[in-house]
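Input.
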Amino acid sequence: MPEIFDKKGGFRKLHSFTLATIIQLETLRFCRRFISHDVRQAGRKFFDPKGRQYDQMTQAARSGRQNIIEGSERSATSKATEMKLTDVARASLSELRGDYEIWILDKGELPWSVHSQDARAVNAISLDAASFQDDMVHESARHALEQRNKYARWLDSEDDVVVANAMLVIIGRALNMLNRQIEAQGKAFEETGGFSERLTARRLEARNRGAAPECPLCGKTMRRRKSERGDFWGCSCFPECKGTRPV
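Output.
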């Protein structure tokens, strides 16, 4: 019988989490560099009309990363919740991708073609496997920054359109990974069931094991039977086996 609890956590070793970390960091940086959230002048605060976009982009990036974390942590007791939160992460990053796309269009430019040299170069970057020892938070943060540096040529550009295009490719890659994660989670749920199903099965097994003893003659599970002298345990293979036990 499968274990009641699925393994939880482990998100720090996922490439999708590494990319989500890069996406959140670079979205914060993009907004600070190219979108003015508010302007202070002579002690007075003036709200930039793009301030709402700043908030929405940074929150969408945060949601993408945080829901991967929460989904992974909830996987021990609810595969359905894990899938739902992974899907929320996917939806948040899709929303963020739309913001970068509109940013490029608003500049009078077009997003890179998938056949362009830059798009191919960004998409061809391979991520290193995450290998941690005993300092998970520190080492995973270092790993994310090391992987981020592979994209530095585009992410450090002074041209906001170049940065936005690179982010489009990176987000698209993260979305493909999350699609595969959800498919794998669904397959695991189909094969082993959810926490509630496994808990019910385990409880039934324990109850049946405690209520019905084994036959002293053949070892088969016994059944409770009635007679004129009262209840007793009789072998489930009766009449082939006539083993009995008192209740």
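The two ends are 28 Å apart (CA to CA).
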